[in-house]
C-alpha cells in the first residue's frame, strides 16, 4: 500500500466515524496538529528565546562586523552556551510539507474521486473540485469531456472469459499508463479507448480466453468516472463511449476557501507579531518591518498562487482548519510562556528581597 492509498484509507475510517468526508478532513487536521503540538510549542519557545537573545546577538555582530569568520564562531559559541538552535523553528514547517503533498495527492487521485469526490460539506459543493474545473456527473452513461482531457483506468477490472467464467477484481498494471485514447478526442463524439491485454494481471492461458472486460475510467479534468465495457480486438481491449462537451466553471465556494485561508494566515501573522516583543516591551524595528511586510504580502502571494495552481477544496479546508488551530495554539502557548516567565521573575525578586533582608539583619 502506497502513502496516497494509506491517506485515503485513514480519511475513509474517519468519514465512517464522522459521517462526512469534510468532517473527516477536519478531524485529520486536528489529529495532525495535536501530534505536532510539542514541536510547535518548542518552535514558539525558540522564537521567544530569540527575542530575549537578540540584543546580545546584535552586540556580537557589531563587535566582529569586520571579521565575519570570528563573528560566526562567537555566535555559534553563544548559541551553544544558551542551548539555542536557530533552526529549531523550521522543523514543524518541514514536517507539514509532506503532509500537504500527501493530502493533495490523495484528494486528486482517481481512488478518492471515485469513492467520495462528489461529497459536499457546508458551502463546499465538491471536496475534489478546484477553482476552475468542470465537475462531471459520474456513472450517467456519458463522459463529460474537454478537448485536451486525459483519462486514467481504475485499479481493477471485471474480466469475462470465452468459456463463461467471470474473474472479479483483476489488477491493472500501471493504471495511469494502461489506458489510451485512439485518434483525436472530439467532445460530443464517441471517445475510442484501448488497453493492452498485457496490463491485466492474469495468467497467459487466461489472457488468451478474454472476451471482454469492465473497468472504471476517470477523466482527470472533470473528475467524472464511468464504468465502461471493453471488447476484445486482437491483442487489445477496445471501447467506444459517448461524450458531451463541458466547459470550465468558476467555483465561488473554492474561491471563498482561498480567501478564508488568506485571512486566517494574515490573522495568524498579526498575532505572532503582537507577541514578539523584547523583554522591555519594545520591538526590534528591522525585525518588525520584515515581519509586517511578510504578514501583509505573504497571504496575498499565496492567494495568487492558489488561484493559478489547482488546489482541491478538501486541501484548502485542511489549510484553513490548520491556520485556525495555529491561531489558538499561539495564544495559548504564549500565555503559558508569559505566565512561566512571570513566575520565574517573581522567584528571582523574592530571592533578591530575601538576600537583602539577610544583609540588613547582619548590619
What does this structure look like?
It is a single chain. The chain is elongated and about 85 Å long. Strands 4-3-7-8-9-6-5 form a seven-stranded antiparallel sheet. With 363 residues, the chain is an alpha+beta fold. It starts with a helix and ends with a helix. The chain is built from eleven helices and eleven strands. A hairpin with a 4-residue loop joins strand 3 and strand 4. Helix 3 crosses helix 11 (313-362). The protein has two domains: 3-111 and 250-346, no CATH class; 135-245, no CATH class.
Quaternary state of this entry equals single chain
Please report the number of helical segments.
11
Write down the domain tally. Answer: 2
Any low-confidence stretches, pLDDT <50, length ≥5?
278-283
Write the layout of secondary structure elements.
Elements: H1 3-18, H2 21-35, H3 37-63, H4 68-81, H5 91-108, H6 110-116, E1 132-133, E2 143-145, E3 151-161, E4 166-171, H7 175-178, E5 179-182, E6 191-196, H8 204-207, E7 210-219, E8 225-233, E9 236-241, E10 243-245, E11 249-250, H9 252-275, H10 285-308, H11 313-362
Parallel strand pairs: 2-10
Antiparallel strand pairs: 1-11, 3-4, 3-7, 5-6, 6-9, 7-8, 8-9
Helix pairs in contact: 1-2, 1-5, 2-11, 3-4, 3-11, 9-10, 9-11
